[in-house]
Amino acid sequence: MTAVIQTLDTPDGPFTILADDRQRVLASGWTSDQQEIVARLSPAARPVTIREGETDAAAAALAYYAGDLSAIDAVAVKQTGTAMQLAGWAALRGIRPGSPLTYTGFAAALENPGAVRAAASICARNAPALFVPCHRVLRTDGTLGGFAWGLDVKERLLARERGALV
To answer: What are the tens digits of pLDDT across the range 117-156?
Structure first.
């Protein structure tokens, strides 16, 4: 598989997108380190060839930062995982901006209310950050919890989605 990688400047720092030859986002995150983005994928899912270039998803990310929070919704992603992970990642895309869920609520949305740790793991293993908005899941007590790209980024994303930042 051939892929393209692109780094954008955003208010939250550099944001790198890795997309396959069909322009589906494989991985993304707030770093300029391309190897860090590739490492978010399992070895079997990593592209054989990666070239720098433009991704279709870049326009959606920039539109999101310009205030169109729904711009990321239509971006195609490609993820590989277990049936539960795939269901979880699909469910994350249904969480609306400004309406975060707790891990308990996310597990309930997956129709498995006892699987709070599995719900957290689904978020932790999410490679196409922003486009699959795992940042919209909080600890059961409402605090931020973890985020691969730093709690400061998660906090700003959530504030932007509440309308507190533009």
So the answer is: 999 999 999 999 999 999 999 998 989 988 999 999 999 9
The sheet carrying 25-29 orders its strands as 25-29, 13-20, 2-10, 49-52
Q: Hey, which residues are catalytic here?
A: 134
Q: Which fold has domain 83-162?
A: Arc Repressor Mutant, subunit A (1.10.10)
Among candidate residues 137, 153, 19, the one with its CA nearest the CA of residue 75: 19
CA 156/CA 166 separation, integer angstroms: 10
Residue ranges of domains in the chain: 2-74, 83-162
Single pTM value for the model? 0.95
**Which tokens in the block code for residue 46?**
């990593």
What number of residues does the chain have?
A: 166
Strands 49-52 and 2-10: parallel
Structure tokens at 132: 């699959």
End-to-end CA distance of the chain: 37
- Of 64, 140, 62, which Cα lies nearest the Cα of 97? 64
Dihedral Cα 105, 109, 111, 114, nearest 10 deg: -20
Q: Which two tokens stand for residue 72?
A: 């990321």
Which residue matches tokens 């711009």?
Answer: 71
Q: What is the pLDDT of residue 140?
A: 86
